[in-house]
Specification:
The complex is a heterodimer of chains A (about 280) and B (about 270). Chain A is about 80% helix and about 0% strand. Chain A contains 12 helices and no strands. The longest helix of chain A is centred in the last third of the chain and has 36 residues. With about 270 residues, chain B is mainly alpha-helical. The radius of gyration of chain B is 19 Å and the shape is globular. Chain B has one domain. Classes of the chains: A mainly alpha (about 280), B mainly alpha (about 270). At the A-B interface, helix 2 and helix 9 of A face helix 2 and helix 8 of B.
Chain lengths: ~280, ~270
């Protein structure tokens, strides 16, 4: 626990303490806020002109846009830790230290989750306020302690799935020395299309819709919407249950893959390789 | 130093060639660059479709094409001198007889040629999946608008490269922070100025100071609303003026930074 705690502190320091913490948080909140506003405005523009505008659907897009960016932001942490660590000769030292690199990556992911948790909440509130004013509408979000608590619980219960995805991407990053920098855009892009962030996966053709619905992230976003838009507790519990269970399975499988990859990477001598 | 055309062109060509060869020598870079524009285009086109307004899917595809270039400007123009400084290349640029402006323009030309394959892939995939209704009445207007938008955008990248040089390590975080808000304000995926814009007049005026805003607006009008050269002439003039001003400003900013760096002895300081 002490090792993970130390890495969490290191991760927070790495991500926001290069400037003043307030400036760091503001800079990290700008992108998800603007991204959520962009997608919400696209919905507003399209739906207003098609005569199908509904404020609950605007809330649907806003919440989905904030949450897919949140998952993408911290699921990428292990890849960044490995890629940057290899370039700066830090990862080799982590690897030969008495604690495992899995703990290091878990700590960095948790740090990234905590920061992204804060920036996502800022983005949700700020984008919601600005959009209500800009688009002259009310965004029907349920704002009471219970719904906020349910949202926070959903965010925490999604950590195993995101960490699992992080280990999977990290397994690849051990061997890569170029393409890993493109992974965040691919992860964000895949989530944008398949996780039901902006539209229900059912509009995708089969089997893509089935793939989208099977993702734990899709069910997490759905549970979050149930908590703060629809207020449907039974639907919230079933979606979150699925997301958590599949997330734990994904985490277990990803850890095994990561360990096998690290062993192979060591035998091939690529752990300290910087350029392909 | 007296201006000589031949070394200037050779410098520009040499810098452009490095970019082009590195891009086309490693096709994986196309896969790297195409990820974000392609997924965001598809997702946002599907979002337009899900609202029942499939006629606007072209906005998302065009946005994906232009975001490839905007990403290239931010990550391969604005940040480049800062990275060159960390690698020890920047001091070599300054001590060589080469013109810095020629190096910057070479970087831009190389960047445009290198990004073109990604933009083409986005256009082809977008067209195949969504068949956006393109109703251009004047392809001359489209090509001219596109060229002037890229010219002014890359000139903005040149100016940013000198600013980022001054910011040092903060450059990467600034890039991450700038990319999305500028995309939103400049209306990469939806009209941010004009009748369809959700923004108040003041914000539309401020957004118009970004070359991408005027370029995107003019491109959408020429491609999807069949407007001709005369309808977008003001935007074209504004883009050309912006390109010239930004080019001159970037050259002056780099000169000022060079002088300051010499005085303070920070030109070769790697990490700040």
């Amino acid at each position: 626990m002490r090792s993970v705690g130390a890495v969490v502190w290191l991760g927070i320091y790495h991500d926001i303490a290069w400037t003043s913490p307030v400036a760091g948080i503001i800079l990290l909140s700008v992108a998800p806020t603007a991204s959520a506003m962009t997608t919400s405005i696209i919905y507003w523009l399209g739906a207003s002109h098609a005569g199908s505008f509904e404020s609950s659907k605007l809330a649907y897009v806003l919440v989905g846009a904030v949450l897919y960016a949140h998952i993408a932001a911290y699921a990428y942490a292990p890849t960044l830790a490995i890629a940057e660590g290899k370039n700066l000769s830090i990862f080799q030292h982590v690897y030969i230290s008495p604690k495992s690199s899995e703990l290091y990556l878990a700590g960095r992911t948790i740090a990234s989750f905590l920061i992204s948790f804060g920036t996502s909440m800022i983005a949700l509130i700020l984008a919601g306020l600005v959009l209500s004013h800009l688009l002259h509408t009310t965004i029907p979000l349920i704002e009471n302690p219970e719904s906020v608590l349910l949202l926070v619980a959903a965010l925490f219960l999604n950590v195993p799935a995101a960490l699992g995805l992080g280990y999977l991407l990290g397994s690849y990053s051990l061997f890569a020395s170029k393409f890993e920098w493109a992974l965040p855009s691919y992860v964000a892009g895949i989530l944008m299309v398949f996780s039901g962030a902006l539209f229900p996966p059912s509009i995708l053709p089969w089997p893509l819709s089935a793939f989208g619905n099977a993702l734990p992230f899709t069910q997490f976003i759905s549970a979050a919407r149930d908590a703060i838009i629809f207020g449907s507790i039974s639907s919230y519990i079933s979606a979150l249950e699925y997301s958590f269970v599949v997330g734990v399975v994904l985490l277990g499988a990803s850890l095994l893959i990561y360990r096998a990859s690290a062993k192979k990477a060591r035998s091939e001598g690529v752990i300290d390789r910087r350029l392909a | 130093m007296r201006f000589e055309l031949r070394p200037w062109i050779r410098t520009m060509k040499a810098r452009a060639l490095v970019r082009i060869l590195s891009q086309f020598g490693e096709p994986l870079w196309i896969v790297v660059n195409v990820g974000f524009p392609i997924f965001s285009s598809v997702a946002l086109a599907l979002l337009y479709e899900s609202t029942g307004l499939s006629g606007y899917t072209g906005f998302a595809i065009l946005g994906g094409i232009m975001i490839s270039f905007w990403g290239n400007v931010l990550w391969s123009m604005a940040s480049q001198f800062n990275w060159d400084k960390q690698e020890g290349l920047f001091e070599i640029y300054l001590t060589s007889p080469c013109s810095i402006t020629a190096i910057l323009i070479g970087m831009s030309v190389g960047g445009i040629v290198g990004t073109a394959p990604s933009a083409v892939v986005v256009a082809i995939v977008g067209w195949l999946f969504f068949h956006p209704a393109v109703v251009a009445s004047s392809w001359v207007a489209v090509v001219l608008t596109f060229s002037l938008t890229l010219a002014s955008l890359y000139c903005m990248g040149m100016l940013l490269s000198s600013l980022y040089l001054a910011y040092g390590r903060a450059a990467e975080s600034l890039n991450n922070a700038l990319q999305e808000p500028v995309s939103m304000l400049s209306g990469v995926y939806f009209p941010s100025i004009g009748q369809l814009s959700p923004f108040p007049f003041g914000i539309q005026v401020a957004a118009s100071l970004i070359p991408l805003t005027l370029g995107m607006d003019a491109l959408r009008r020429t491609l999807f609303f069949s407007q001709g050269l005369s309808s977008v002439s003001i935007e074209l003039i504004a883009l050309a003026v912006m390109a010239i001003i930004l080019l001159v400003a970037s050259s002056a900013a780099l000169k000022a930074l060079e002088n300051k760096g010499r005085r303070e002895g920070t030109i070769s300081v790697r990490i700040r």
